[in-house]
Write a structure and sequence with these properties.
With 272 residues, this protein is an alpha/beta fold. Helix content is 43%, strand content 14%. The protein has an eight-stranded parallel barrel, surrounded by six helices. The relative contact order is 0.13. Residues 21-186 form the Xylose isomerase-like TIM barrel domain. InterPro entries: Xyl_isomerase-like_sf (IPR036237), Xyl_isomerase-like_TIM-brl (IPR013022). Keywords: Isomerase.
Length: 272
């Protein structure tokens, strides 16, 4: 199974496309995961630049976080997903629904993503993320029972935060969830937040070990299923994910440096 590792555009939005793409290539990533502009010309410019650089593309949709009212959220979801699919990425990673929507409303949104995926011939996977329909294990479990084909992005750092634990007490939930994972966001969380200050620090050895255990299980499941490709995006984010000093605001770590360090760890761990 081929394992490809992607650079997150999140945290580097201020860089010009050519600068960011060169940074990605220099670090040794295989591709870019990003939210694409709604302007078709700008979207296609990104797509062309990424392809010309020999990189792969995973498209993101997260902007519906700004739409709390259900009808507006549904309409925005359709718009952003269609735009993402138009770029012909490997797949689209979407932030879908809200934890305060009804079960039926979130089911409607999941069905909408499935229709758009079929219409465009582009897979769409749903990210495990706080405040979305998947924001807590007990929120997600009913959807897994009802929708056996549901495909997920595993960002389990969010569940660490939501459950105030490293999920030691939820083996059944993990056993039910991990077979649905098609993409990994490789960020290390802890019981009080979705991102440790530096996963290389010895005080976070337990957190790193637990996340690596989950990622190993996902990779093994995909190999056993005969998957040709597994994708992973190190996704340490900027402030406020990156913690900072009080008053001065000086960051405790550099998100890009952490993502490159995670790239190297994953390359060594999953080398053929």
């Amino acid at each position: 199974m081929d394992i490809r590792i992607f650079a997150p555009h999140w945290g580097s939005n201020e860089l010009a496309p050519e600068v960011f793409i060169e940074r990605v290539k220099a670090a040794g990533f295989d591709g870019i995961e990003m939210s694409l502009p709604l302007d078709a010309a700008q979207r296609d410019d990104w797509r062309t630049r990424i392809a010309d650089a020999g990189l792969l593309l995973i498209a993101q949709q997260w902007e519906t976080v700004f739409h709390a009212e259900f009808d507006a959220h549904r309409d925005a979801l359709a718009t952003y997903l269609a735009n993402a699919c138009a770029a012909r990425p490997l797949f689209v990673n979407t932030h879908t629904g809200k934890d305060f929507y009804t079960h039926e409303q979130n089911r409607e949104l999941i069905a909408l993503t499935a229709r758009i995926a079929r219409e465009h011939g582009v897979p769409i996977v749903h990210e495990i993320h706080r405040s979305r329909f998947s924001g807590h294990p007990m929120l997600l479990r009913p959807y897994l029972r009802e929708l056996p084909g549901l495909e997920l992005t595993a960002d389990l750092s969010h569940w660490c935060c939501a459950c105030e634990s490293l999920l030691d007490d939820q083996p059944a939930t993990l056993a039910a969830t991990l077979p649905h994972v098609r993409h990994i966001h490789a960020r290390v969380g802890h019981a009080q937040g979705p991102q440790v200050s530096d996963f290389r620090a010895p005080q976070f050895a337990a957190e790193l070990a637990r996340h690596l255990e989950w990622w190993d299980r996902i990779v093994a499941l995909r190999r056993a299923a005969g998957a040709a490709l597994m994708t992973i995006t190190p996704e340490f984010g900027p402030a406020p994910y990156t913690q900072s000093m009080p008053f001065s605001g000086e960051p405790l770590s550099d998100a890009w440096d952490l993502n490159v360090a995670m790239l190297r760890l994953l390359r060594e761990r999953y080398a053929a």
